[in-house]
Amino acid sequence: MNALNAALPLISVLIGSAITYLLNVRTRRLSKIDDLFHDAMAAVALVVARQKWVNSVSVIEGSQLQERDALWAQLDREGVENYARSIADARAALARASAYAPELREYFFSADMDTVYNRADEILSKLRSRLR
């Protein structure tokens, strides 16, 4: 009886520790999955924001037409580069999230570069529905 009295609290602590550990591991795993969906949502929102890049510059007194044209060209080039980069990032984020939501695959497999932008509301809705 003395051995049982000594072992019972130890067994209880071990069982409690095991349950706590398993719950913590499960919570961390679910949190990582939610983080993937949040990252994908942010990437899609960034595509929408970057699609509306700055494409005009007001006239600055004393500026030459050539300077203004060069600035417009630079802004346009940078805007297109940022937009293309954000689409690539969004597709990568959707690819990672598709491991847990296979219905997202159609958005990053599409050959159309503007799929993410054109279907952003639909994508965001599917991502939101997967959050816990």
Give a structural overview.
Helices cover 78% and strands 0% of the residues. Helix 1 (2-51) packs antiparallel against helix 2 and helix 1 packs antiparallel against helix 5. The model has no long low-confidence stretch (mean pLDDT 85). The protein is elongated and about 95 Å long. The chain starts with a helix and ends with a helix. The longest helix has 50 residues, at 2-51. With 132 residues, it is an all-alpha fold. It has one domain.
Task: List strands and helices in order, with pairings.
Layout: H1 2-51, H2 65-97, H3 105-109, H4 115-118, H5 120-130
Helix pairs in contact: 1-2, 1-5
Order of helices and strands: HHHHH
| Count of spatially separate domains | 1
Oligomer: single chain
**Which geometry do the CA atoms define?**
elongated
The portion of residues assigned to helices is: over 70%
Number of strands: 0
DSSP summary: helix tally: 5
- Mean pLDDT equals 85
Low-confidence stretches: none
Characterize the main sheet: none
As a whole number of angstroms, the C-alpha radius of gyration is: 26 Å
**Portion in beta strands:** under 5%
Which features does this protein show?
132 residues; mainly alpha; 78% helix
Give the structure's gist in a few sentences.
Keywords: Membrane, Transmembrane, Transmembrane helix. The protein has five helices and no strands.
